[in-house]
């Protein structure tokens, strides 16, 4: 995997709701229940339309965890014509498929049954483990308890959902906690075989949060963690870093395989102060390894047929589309 080409996915980011039952000390994405706390159908359709015309292959649904547990939320979701955010997500996933994009959902922790029916319209799903350590940043976060996250990731394995997980670095964990978190992910993958990528994401302090002045981890810690991840994780798991948060060109040499989802039509709503590099810049970051587009479901899982029947034709078509684009790009490079 070390010398394989660097990959990325072209996506359109839809933050369906900012309401969340957790209170992570590092997060500015979360907002209280109020006007505009649910993305309207019109806004969502706009992002899907723009994404499709920009050649995106993935619709990324990321939002607050179990928002229905927050008082007054139901009124806001009902205004869009749904009784839960997952019903809304399911509807928009179907719309995304009609627009020609593969849905990938990161909704936080989900109940087994919810995971099961949402997976019927998703090509892949994700949930960051964050860390196996009990840390103050996760006080008042029922969904960030390590055992709760681990169970959810295992459930995705039982359901054969191609899965993205990862670590958030510098939130109060120690070096040995990072090793422990990676061992846990490796162990889950050995049992279920569904982890396609692990994100090594560095925490970025945000103004107005409890962790505004919290020290950040430097590139050397990120690099060490990537190397440790490469040692601990099975070879078939890709290591992803977000190119808008870290010094990606330097970290490539540490064992990175992938630059994750990059959205040409929206900002990164979780890290709005960090714009993504332009798609042309990804080529510079990847250097001699070269850069190629991938789908949100990796080849291995396409071959195994780990996707719902409704996605068969679209996966086939998009696979051919990106193959053609990748060939044209590599031809241009060799001229
Ligand atoms: O733009 C972002 N994309 C995030 N993504 C998107 C991700 O980079 C891509 O959608 C996947 O690589 C799938 O192609 C996540 C996906 C997950 O499943 C879990 C966590 C994340 C976290 C982020 C994030 O913080 N910012
Ligand atoms: C969607 C993912 O975004 C990450 N996330 C949440 N807040 C921050 C932040 N301040 N800096 C970096 N990553 C963050 C978490 O790991 C979450 O699971
Ligand atoms: S990081 Fe996710 S779970 Fe934590 S408060 Fe923000 S939206 Fe909620």
TrEMBL record:
Q: Answer yes or no on keyword Hydrolase.
A: no
Give the NCBIfam families listed for this entry.
F420_cofG (TIGR03550), PRK06245.1 (NF004884)
Recorded catalytic reaction(s): these are:
5-amino-5-(4-hydroxybenzyl)-6-(D-ribitylimino)-5,6-dihydrouracil + S-adenosyl-L-methionine = 7,8-didemethyl-8-hydroxy-5-deazariboflavin + 5'-deoxyadenosine + L-methionine + NH4(+) + H(+)
Family to which the UniProt record says this protein belongs:
Belongs to the radical SAM superfamily. CofG family.
- Which protein, by its recorded name, is this? 7,8-didemethyl-8-hydroxy-5-deazariboflavin synthase
* Cofactor: record remark: Binds 1 [4Fe-4S] cluster. The cluster is coordinated with 3 cysteines and an exchangeable S-adenosyl-L-methionine.
Is 4Fe-4S a UniProt keyword of this protein? yes
PROSITE patterns attached to this UniProt entry: RADICAL_SAM
User: Which positions are annotated as binding [4Fe-4S] cluster?
Assistant: 20, 24, 27
The task this protein performs is described as: Catalyzes the radical-mediated synthesis of 7,8-didemethyl-8-hydroxy-5-deazariboflavin (FO) from 5-amino-5-(4-hydroxybenzyl)-6-(D-ribitylimino)-5,6-dihydrouracil.
Against InterPro entries, the record matches this protein to: Aldolase_TIM (IPR013785), CofG_family (IPR019939), Elp3/MiaA/NifB-like_rSAM (IPR006638), F420 (IPR034405), rSAM (IPR007197), rSAM_sf (IPR058240)
Spell out the subunit comment. The FO synthase complex consists of two subunits, CofG and CofH.
Give the record's pathway. Cofactor biosynthesis; coenzyme F0 biosynthesis
Which CDD domains does UniProt cross-reference here?
Radical_SAM (cd01335)
